[in-house]
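Lab channel / #folding
Pinned by the channel admin:
"Please post every new chain as: sequence first, then the structure tokens as a reply. Keep commentary short and put observations after the output so the thread stays searchable."

First post following the new format, from NK:
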Amino acid sequence: MFLFVALSACAGSTDAESAEAETPTVAFVSPHDGDTVPAGEIAVSIAIGHFLLADPSKHTEGEAEGYLQVDWTDGTGSDSVQTGETTPTLSIATPGSWTLTADLIFADGDGMDEAFPDFAPASITITVE
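Reply from TO:
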């Protein structure tokens, strides 16, 4: 009798069904907000949580994975890169104050807002000399 009850209790749901997916996170590791960096090739490091990065050229509809999009702007010019890596290199040759934004995009091109309304892209401001 005990064995039957234990098996019946386990058969009701799986871990995947009972656990809610955690909201993905994204944060700049380096440079830090307010840092001054030399113009040119700028190495960026970004921490990702609860999200699987994949090659942005692979379009997989409905998969719980995607890519990192990093945008940078100084208010007059802007650029962006889509990558499956957490260490992209940005090319910023113009001195000034630049805002960097890291966002996660599902592989099918959808943003995080529908599936994870609490998700917020990371943003920092750096000075390029």
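NK: The first strand starts at residue 25 and ends at 30.
TO: also worth noting, The chain has one domain: 23-128.
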